[in-house]
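Sequence, please.
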């Protein structure tokens, strides 16, 4: 599961597509399950109408997540309340957490694994996040489906 806001939401969708489809054309593998929690407009608008925006990703983690899953949260500030709450929900369910952040913010402390870009420049952080996301996908797909020589 992947979550983030704004440009980070778009990055979540991009990376979920890479996992489910493929990252590299020459690397043949089965699909990997991945879900961007940013894409269901009926849920997103309905939930925000009835509840708090801060809980939008946590609710989905509670509904869809299970032990053995991974939650990847992307936040350039490292302080997005809805991403922080999603990580808290993930911890309660025994779900592993990975964060992509900028130079600061409490998300860095909540994540089991954190890649923190040492910058406060949003554009630079976002550029590096998608590069890091591609590297993570590369490592995961080759770890799960190693090719025979």
């Amino acid at each position: 599961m992947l979550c983030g806001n704004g440009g980070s939401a778009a990055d979540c969708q991009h990376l979920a597509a890479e996992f489910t489809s493929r990252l590299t054309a020459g690397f043949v593998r089965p699909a990997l399950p991945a879900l961007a929690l940013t894409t269901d407009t009926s849920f997103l608008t309905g939930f925000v109408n009835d509840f708090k925006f801060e809980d939008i990703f946590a609710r989905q983690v509670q509904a869809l997540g299970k032990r053995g899953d991974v939650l990847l949260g992307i936040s350039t500030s490292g302080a997005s309340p809805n991403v922080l709450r999603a990580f808290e929900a993930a911890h309660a369910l025994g779900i592993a957490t990975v964060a992509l952040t900028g130079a600061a913010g409490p998300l860095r402390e909540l994540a089991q694994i954190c890649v923190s870009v040492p910058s406060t420049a949003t554009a630079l952080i976002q550029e590096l996040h998608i590069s890091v996301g591609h590297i993570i996908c590369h490592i995961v797909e080759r770890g799960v489906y190693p090719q025979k020589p």
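The longest strand covers residues 70-75.
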